Each structure stands twice: as structure tokens, then as C-alpha cells.
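By convention, the C-alpha cell line describes the chain's fold. To illustrate:
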Amino acid sequence: MTAVGFMPNGFAQSTAGEYASNVFWIVGIALIASWIVAVIFTPWLGVHLLPDRKPVAAGHAALYDTPRYQRFRRLLTRVIAHKWRVAAGVVALFIVAILGMSVVNKQFFPTSDRPEVLVEVQLPYGSSISQTSAAAAKIEHWLQRQPEAKIVTSYIGQGAPRFYLAMAPELPDPPSPN
């Protein structure tokens, strides 16, 4: 059931899915490995490493005649005697948790405050790379004269490298001059 909670991320066809799809697979594989260890390996270790049980001289009741068990038994007796109060307390804590979720920010990626401008120049289909380069050079020259512009870069014939996950660059397309 835990892995099912991560399924939307595992199969999402979006930037969030691209970023977090591996979580689904990692959680699923980890849970399967954990189950195998718990069901097969741990009992095998118990059989081979733990000593054989020795009978208790004072009898079976002596196992429960310890201070720790007596404290646990008193706590359990109180919980059972006041089961409705305990249940109401659990429900109240659950409601507080649900109400507390209203203050949790609901966003997958944090807001971006990257001070950048991306300009995409597309000439009519069939334009040459040299025409696209000339148009991009004019825009670059204008941008470089702006005091706010620190770095100006252009990519002709394809999008920029994927340096920022929320950006989906244009893939190389030889017939398209972009």
C-alpha cells in the first residue's frame, strides 16, 4: 500500500514526474527487499543465532512478574477502563492534525525567483540557420546594451541544455531552424 501512494509520481508525464518518478521505484524495491528480509532472512537468523529456550525455574508466571511489565499492565488497565476517553483523545488529535494540514503549503516545486528572461525566436519554417543566427545576433546585441542584462546566450537549432528542471527546452530538430 505504501508504494501505491507514490504511483502518481512514478507514472506522471510531467516535470514533477521526471523529478520524482524514481521515488516510486525506490520505495517499491525497498519494500519488497524489506519484506523478503522480514519473512525469510530474519526467521532464519533467529533459528541459527538465538539460543534454545530454557525453562524458567519459577514457572511461566515469573516472566510477567517484573517491574517493567507491571507498569505496562497498570497503563493498559487504565486505558481499557477509560476507553471512550482514550478514543475521543485519538479522534481529537486526528482532527487537530487534519486542521493543521491547512497551514501546510501545497506545492511540489518551490516558487522560482530566478531573475532571468528566456526569449524564443522562431522564424518561418524553412528559414536557414544563417537567417536565424542573424536574427538572434540582433536580439543579443540589443540585450547586451541593457544595463540589467548580465549574461546573454543563444542556442541556434535547438533549445538550451536542461540546467533547470522546470524549464523544458526545445529538442534538436534538424529541419527546423529555431
Q: What stands out?
A: Residues 15-49 form the longest helix (35 residues). The chain has six helices and no strands. Residues 1-50 form one domain.
